[in-house]
């Protein structure tokens, strides 16, 4: 029988399974849970009051055919947003106080991930044959989660447990499945012709081969159909609310205050649905050149040509990092290919695939972890020199302190 230990591994003698269990740690989670619990008390009071007011208005409208319908429409929209906020807050409370992530590896190398948040559980099966390795993501946005690296994408396993437990679990999982950890960064020395990742087309993209002309790289058509369905439902609600508002008449109270914003949102939703149905941005794959096109119905417009690709890291004022894959065309501004808020892995695979497919140079300009350590060491040395140079130097040293200091 296999036994599970928090943040560690234990091999079952009879079943041959290996289980990892991760739970919340640290005293800071109690402060977060306490604050959110107080907020949820106010949220519950607002939720009950809004439901009561909405019920009274709708009951009066059904009984007499009259009532402040614009107020009811406002309450309906507000109640939906308020409910989403409460659900998110409750999930964070459960994550801080009553949560567990468990990863089980069977004897044949198959994996099962169990996510528990309070009484709610969710299971997901993972194929060990598709996983390249396990690793703990480096510092930045989403620092420290244990992830499974697959061709073209990453799957987050857990953020629970301590950073040391997640690192030990990554090492033990790699040894258990015979996987080789990836380098800390696939681009230790970026170069203009470097292809740092496997040329695998990531999820969310699809290659089309027309009967004539060059191949096209387009957003995944199946995903676009799902987006059209969701946007269609959103439009149904928006235009239905607008129709009810118009039916009540322009003389009703608050018609213009509520009708004009609702009409603008409905028009924006209608345009979004039309774009998902008829339009798209696509890349035409020519030899040694990538052509960005905008297609809308039967109309096609060329937006620009890129003869090289680069992956760049962007850092905002809070020190949070994001990543962008873009096509360069000096002296004109670069053409955006794709963005990612936290992980450049899928962008590396997409850049490598485009570079191999169209034979264009691909430069990975994201710093490696070794380069980041050197930058932090140099910044710390500079800060210490400033701190020892006098009052103004100490003030300047404090301004240099940040997430990476």
From TrEMBL:
It comes from the Bacteria. The chain crosses the membrane at residues 30-55, 67-90, 229-249, 255-278. Residues 321-342 are annotated as: Disordered. Keywords: Membrane, Transmembrane, Transmembrane helix. This is Uncharacterized protein. It comes from Cyanobium gracile (strain ATCC 27147 / PCC 6307). The lineage of its organism: Bacteria, Bacillati, Cyanobacteriota, Cyanophyceae, Synechococcales.
């Amino acid at each position: 029988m296999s036994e599970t230990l928090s943040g560690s591994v234990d091999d079952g003698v009879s079943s041959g399974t290996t289980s990892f269990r991760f739970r919340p740690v640290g005293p800071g989670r109690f402060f977060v849970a306490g604050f959110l619990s107080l907020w949820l008390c106010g949220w519950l009071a607002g939720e009950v009051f809004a439901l009561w007011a909405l019920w009274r208005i709708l009951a009066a409208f059904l009984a007499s055919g009259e009532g402040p319908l614009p107020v009811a429409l406002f309450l309906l929209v507000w109640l939906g947003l308020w409910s989403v906020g409460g659900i998110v807050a409750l999930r964070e409370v459960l994550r801080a106080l009553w949560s567990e992530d468990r990863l089980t590896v069977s004897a044949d190398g198959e994996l099962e991930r169990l996510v528990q948040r309070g009484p709610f559980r969710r299971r997901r099966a993972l194929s060990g044959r598709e996983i390249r390795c396990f690793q703990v993501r480096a510092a930045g946005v989403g620092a420290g989660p244990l992830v499974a690296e697959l061709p073209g994408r990453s799957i987050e396993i857990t953020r629970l447990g301590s950073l040391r437990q997640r690192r030990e679990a990554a090492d033990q999982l790699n040894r258990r499945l015979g996987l080789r950890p990836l380098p800390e960064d696939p681009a230790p020395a970026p170069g203009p012709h470097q292809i740092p990742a496997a040329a695998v087309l990531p999820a969310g993209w699809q290659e089309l081969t027309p009967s004539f002309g060059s191949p096209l790289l387009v957003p995944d058509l199946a995903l676009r159909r799902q987006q059209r369905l969701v946007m269609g439902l959103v439009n149904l609600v928006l235009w239905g609310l607008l129709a009810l508002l118009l039916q009540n008449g322009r003389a009703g109270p608050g018609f213009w205050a509520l009708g004009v914003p609702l009409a603008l949102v409905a028009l924006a939703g209608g345009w979004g649905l039309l774009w998902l149905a008829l339009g798209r941005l696509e890349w035409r794959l020519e030899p040694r050149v990538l052509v960005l096109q905008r297609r809308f119905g039967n109309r096609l417009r060329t937006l620009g040509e890129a003869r090289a690709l680069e992956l760049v890291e962007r850092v905002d004022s809070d020190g949070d990092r994001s990543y962008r894959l873009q096509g360069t065309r000096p002296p004109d501004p670069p053409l955006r290919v794709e963005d990612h808020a936290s992980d450049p892995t899928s962008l590396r695979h997409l850049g490598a695939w485009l570079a191999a497919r169209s034979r264009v140079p691909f430069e990975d300009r994201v710093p490696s972890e070794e380069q980041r350590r050197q930058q932090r060491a140099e910044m710390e040395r500079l800060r210490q020199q400033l701190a020892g140079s006098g009052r103004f130097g100490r003030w300047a040293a404090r301004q240099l302190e940040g997430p990476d200091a």
